[in-house]
Design goal:
By secondary structure, the chain is of the alpha+beta class. The protein is built from two helices and two strands. The chain folds into two domains: 33 residues; 51 residues, no CATH class. It has a two-stranded antiparallel ribbon.
């Protein structure tokens, strides 16, 4: 690996990081125009899930995703490794 190869690799890494940042910014902008009920839906889902498993507030993500002509409700729940004691 020559000196120029090393410098070129950094530029490629910077380009990848820039592309990732664009994706994040686009996702954040898209989330602002979401339905008004999403925060309430997220809170209620968290309450129901907490009846069975102790999860953090950040563990439940609710989002609306466009798939072609349809809006799809995307719900993601990160469960703990071990269940909480009953």
């Amino acid at each position: 690996m020559g000196l120029f190869d090393f410098l070129l690799a950094k530029k490629q890494t910077a380009a990848v990081a820039k592309d990732r940042l664009r994706i994040i910014v686009a996702h954040e902008r898209a989330g602002r125009g979401g339905p008004e009920y999403l925060p309430m839906l997220q809170r209620e889902l968290l309450e129901v899930i907490r009846k069975y498993v102790n999860v953090d507030v950040e563990a439940v993500k609710v989002d609306v995703v466009k798939e072609g002509e349809h809006d799809v409700l995307d719900i993601s729940v990160a469960l703990p490794d071990r269940p909480s004691p009953a």
